[in-house]
Amino acid sequence: MTIQSKRLSNLEPWQDPKKHPYVSIKNLTKTFGGRVVVNDVSLSIYRGELFSLLGRSGCGKTTLLRMLAGFETCTSGRIYIDGIDMTDTPPYKRPVSMVFQSYALFPHMTVRQNVAFGLIQEGINKNEIRERVNAYLELVQMSGYEERKPHQLSGGERQRVALARSLVKQPKLVLLDEPLAALDKKLRERTQLELVNIQEKVGVTFIMVSHDQEEAMTMSSRIGIMNEGRILQVGEPTEIYEYPNSRYVANFIGSINLFDGMIVEERADHVVIKAPLIENNLYISHSASMPVGAQISVAIRPEKIILTTEKPTGEYNWTSGVVRDIEYLGDVSIYHVQLRSGVVVLATVINYVRAAERPIQWDDEVFLRWNPANGIILAL
């Protein structure tokens, strides 16, 4: 095998031009009473992905999921699953299962009856139903709970039953609508990893809707950021976080510091930006593909900023200010530093020592500096 072919074999499906999408959404639009809720969305999702649609409430992500399930009709556009046009196919004929935020378990049925319900409706042999129900309850670690009813289960246990009920039908696609929203923080974090492990074991394609950034970043192979019915950016979690393509995405994912400025020097390997609200020019060690004089923003994540009481050397990538607030979060503290211009910059510091022993406190004069590679250039 050549070096080139080795490299190609390591490509993710969405990076390989030879791979075909498993779910293909083409120019999908949905309007309600003249209001556009999903606006000309096109997406390619590949077999075995756990793909997340992430956005604020009302951005259109749940409507998009419901159109994939067949619960909402499309105003225009097409939906293909495994190469077959499903746009006009009714929900009960689609190879799709959906896990709802409320789990939608039948309260009068036992766990076993809930999981078996869809198979019974399809007229599957009783022996096969029993075997499949047992297998999928074991998969989601719910063996031994077969005769309990939903009110006798915790939120996490009900979530597992709902997932088993979806998977037992062996669908081509599983849709999850805010599946962990009803769980407390600790249980949600544990269930995130369990859900990913289950998805990897069964190899089914998952599409999940979420407004929880941490959840989407933790679980997803790729994320689609939605706003006002449109997909703004699609990428792996690291790509979305480290290389947002717009101010909206940069602001939506995590915390960010934004400095407006103008490009005053442009070279193949760097650009220099003059930002009026900070003391020194910004040196970014990659090309912005924008001309001198272009008005842009520079985004810098708080964890990329180094906080110090010693004045940095050099003429680029540092500024000074006064600590106005400190958010103590246990493992880290977020310092709110007010610059001379009045702008407040956030800097995240790992708590290596206890709070009482911190070398930098409220009202201290400090310096902030950052690496030339850590600035992100965004168009205004």
Note the topology.
Blueprint: H1 3-9, E1 23-32, E2 35-45, E3 50-54, H2 61-69, E4 76-81, E5 84-85, E6 96-99, H3 111-121, H4 126-139, H5 155-167, E7 173-177, H6 185-202, E8 205-210, H7 213-219, E9 222-227, E10 230-235, H8 237-242, H9 247-252, E11 257-266, E12 271-274, E13 282-284, E14 295-300, E15 305-308, E16 318-328, E17 332-339, E18 344-350, E19 365-370, E20 376-379
Helix pairs in contact: 3-4, 3-5, 4-5
Question: What does it look like?
Answer:
The protein has nine helices and 20 strands. With 380 residues, it is α+β, with helices and mostly antiparallel strands. The chain has two domains: 237 residues, Rossmann fold (3-Layer(aba) Sandwich), CATH 3.40.50; 125 residues, RNA polymerase II/Efflux pump adaptor protein, barrel-sandwich hybrid domain (OB fold (Dihydrolipoamide Acetyltransferase, E2P)). Helix 3 packs across helix 4, helix 3 runs parallel beside helix 5 and helix 4 packs across helix 5.
Question: How is this structure best summarized?
Answer:
This protein is an alpha+beta fold and 380 residues long.
Please describe the structure with a list of short key phrases separated by commas or semicolons.
2 domains; five-stranded antiparallel β-sheet; 9 helices; six-stranded mixed β-sheet; 380 residues; OB fold (Dihydrolipoamide Acetyltransferase, E2P); alpha+beta
